[in-house]
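Page 47, continued from p. 46.
Same chain as before, 299 aa.
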Amino acid sequence: MDAAVVQRLLATVEEGALRRWVAAFSGPRHGAQDPARLAAAGERLEGEFKALGLAPRRDAFRYWRQSYFNVVATLPGDSPSRPALLLGAHYDAMAGTPGADDNASGVAVMLAVARALAGIRSASPIEFVGFTLEEPQIAFDRYRHGSRHFARRAWWGRRRYAGIFVLEMVGYTDHRPGSQAVLPQLRRPVPSVGDFLAAVGTRRARPLLQRLEAARVYVPELPLLTHQVALRGFLLPPSRWSDHAPFWDRGYPAVMLTDTSFLRNPHYHQPTDLPETLDYAFMAAVARLVIATLVEMGG
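Result:
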């Protein structure tokens, strides 16, 4: 797509809108402890997609005899037979937390991308998915229930994806030297300043990581660290702690985009995970990177 068109789409990203969305989706919304408020968050996401001119649908499933739903909105594309692109983020929160970074930030960036792309015609179909029940619901829970349900149905239905991008905590930065922790299993240099976006994928996702790196020409102010894991991330367990992992397990090319969670953000899974702790300029840059990547991939 013409670079001028891409720049026009990037200009639709507004920090004010990101702030409003984070505020709207922050607050208790845990499946086991706050099921009514979790359902209300899903309904709110449906309303946001409708306001963008999309037609959301519910992808319902049951967990412990209770009903829950992912929210799916699709841009059909001019060539619906082409493998689709998917951008997802979980809209539930850990029990006892407002979940601003985890993961209202991901939902807000997803909506910013959806708003930018809703007015264009892509060759490839593009799906936007709000996953539910990403967080553990009970002790020793496997979690990621919504995305496991979605990935399983996609695999059974032989649904093809050219690329899956999952937004998992994309709002927190710390510009002080030494603010970024590193997993001991990760044997590679990592910046000591927590101001970069990490993109983590498997060998199948290597083309997606390369696409993200190429798209940085549109967002040069955003530091990006890409990393390819082996064995679906089992040698680096935290690399599997979000909704991309069920897609890895089904053989799909998927990437997690993250501010590195507990390795940087001291408010992770705490009552202090509040909207005022986030960096909205950083979130805007993340949204622009994703828009440029999807536009280039979608054709």
